[in-house]
Amino acid sequence: MPTSINIFDEPQLNNNQAEKPFVIGKVVTTFFEGADSFYKVLLVKVEKTNTDWTEEEIVVTGNFADIAEETSYRFVGKLVDHPRYGKQFQADNYERASQSSPEGLIKYLASDDFPGIGKKTAQKVVETLGTDLIEKIISDPTTIKKVGLNSKQNQTIVDGLRNNNGAEQVIVGLNGYGFGSALAAAILKKYHEKALKVIQENPYQLVEDIKNISFKRADQIASKVGIEYNSAGRLRAGLLTTLTRLSIRNGNTYSNSKELINASFEILDTDPQQQIDNQKLAQELKELVKDHKIEVDDGKIYLKYLYDDEWKIAENAKRIIDDKQSSTKDYKTTIHEVENEAKIKYDDSQIAAINAALENQIFILTGGPGTGKTTIINGIVKSFAKVNKLSLDVNKYKDDAFPVLLAAPTGRAAKKMSESTGIPAATIHRLLGLNGNDEEDGNDIDGQLLIIDEMSMVDTELFTKLMKSIPTGMKVILVGDKDQLPSVGPGQVFYDLIRSEVIPKIELNQIHRQGDGSTIIQLAHEIKNGEIPQTLLDKEKDRSFIQCNTSQVVKVIDQVVAKAKERKFTATDIQVLAPMYRGEAGIDRLNNDVQAIMNPPKGEQQKQVEYQNVKYRIGDKVLQLVNAPEDNVFNGDIGKVVGIEINKDQKKYLDKLVVAFDQTEVSYTRNDWNQLTLAYCTSIHKAQGSEFNMVILPIVPQYRRMLERNLLYTAVTRASQKLIMVGDVNSFAECISHVSSNRKTSLRERLDKIFNPKPVSEKPELVDKKVSTDIESEEPKKDAEPDKYILTEAKILSNQIDPMVGMDGVKPNDFMDEKLE
Question: Region entry Disordered: which residue ranges (predicted)?
Fold first, then answer.
């Protein structure tokens, strides 16, 4: 690494860039400015350019700090001709043009931005320090003392330059490294004016501190600034990135040293001319533990936040349960009153479930489709209100919090809860006031009873925030189907809570909702039990299986959709579900085909916009891909395009899509269209928590690596009236026989330790700082005590035994049984 680096030398705007396309001009106005990023769209009056642009004004886009209108800037980049945006200048970097000449600098320093600095003083500063004075002063504020001004003038100039140019200089540097606007904003927020220095000295620090900075990106920067292949920063970042990937990809909350080290080589060992230093890698693993970037407990290696979250869930569960008050209330009498008022008859298991919910501070209710979960939720709400003499009329709680809170992971699931109970329901994110920032805690919630539905979808991080926000004294009911797909994020919270044996629970098995000869629910239960139905290929009233090969699947689905449309099924009624996006029978292909049938183009006059090869028309069914709490829409919500606004001045970046969701209407500018996609066909994960009148389910060998019983079970249970399965019956059978393995999590153990603590003398440390590399030492000498030569976690940390002893020149890949897929 170079011994001395000027943080503004790489990258910089200088004569080396003179031959690159540039535009010098005065900013007329800012058309668009990202709320949480530096991305801007500017209208610039052209003063000079080396491009073939001949018009008076040009649109300039890019990442910029504070841009002053009526100020001239020099933009370096390229002219682009976007098929929708039209011609514009895409800036990679920029600087104030007025500050590159002595006259411009004098005028700048004598402006209102520097009170008390007149033209003569400004001229003295420029003559003494030169035209690069801004960079000099920002990098070393003491430089201003060379001019001979008084201390007040010195401070005015330093403060003014920092306020006006500090962020700008950093953004210029970050642009040079190719960081997008959102990442640039996050980097500047974290490191402030030291951002470029951090990148120059250890770009891998970004991997540890900034979300969405990839190891590959840091590696590319490191190669430019001379960071060593086996530097501590590189090895640390490789280990952290690998552990994060393992958690996200597999849904596990922990890994082990063998798996971690083996997988880390897949991203670290990129240069065949160099070799990873095994001993340094083992040392950095220990350093990460010491620095609390990762935690190790009983040989299990955790990301810090996942380790903490599982303990927090257990601790908060104990806090809530310990508040249980003794009661002599006759719940069964109340339950029968609710039963009579609703004119229904509960069976014994339903009465037991409602009674248990009223008796316990936390209660778990699980069951498959048609077992009466919704009926019981209603019974719990009404019985709780009767017991506590509460009104369920929301209009009577103008000044006080409504006592019953209902929530679910998705907007559609929350809407279903509200429709079935008649009282408001929200997404969990909305309930907690979360805006998508992973680091924020949820707001404390207020009420007496909380019911969460679709719990199998809730991951470790979200449930931690929920449990922390629940006040002591509130009753909590967790409802879901344990046999559905686990959460997309790490953990299997609902399954672990059920297995823990410390939280009261009831599992419903009796099917109630199977009237009118419905066979879908029965099919779902057979799948759950691992049975291949004898009637699978029979044409039933509510389901059928159309056998065909992969090349025929799309054509068959097109025919089914067209026929359904003829029978007055709408796009809202019909949902195609598939587990993969790419391929002949993938989500992308199916979306285009179904859109052409359900919402075909109606002529050249019809409004239509295109984004990333997807065409959107009014009436299109679309899917929200990210959480946007500020708009009350969340990942997985399905809406309908109800408006398209095309800018009259052909400024296509101002085009808008207006989408109506169940509870709100949202307007998206083109810059936000990456939050949407067509929803005629979605993944099974995205459909979880929703029901559709007709589900069309392709099942082909192409999906083989995704075919698991809980995936098929979840897909089938999305259908409320019609289920059309299309494809290969052998793949269907394979799906039923393939049971996914449980994720590697520790929540069950944490609950057991918190609820059933061992005596102090026997209780192990909750935070075990030891780590093993799974690398065995040489055999001990015969006359020595064997345990002295066994590689243990304690001996590694105390440096009694080198974890790499006898392993010179050997890589973990050389002795691992198998490489991680």
Answer: 765-786
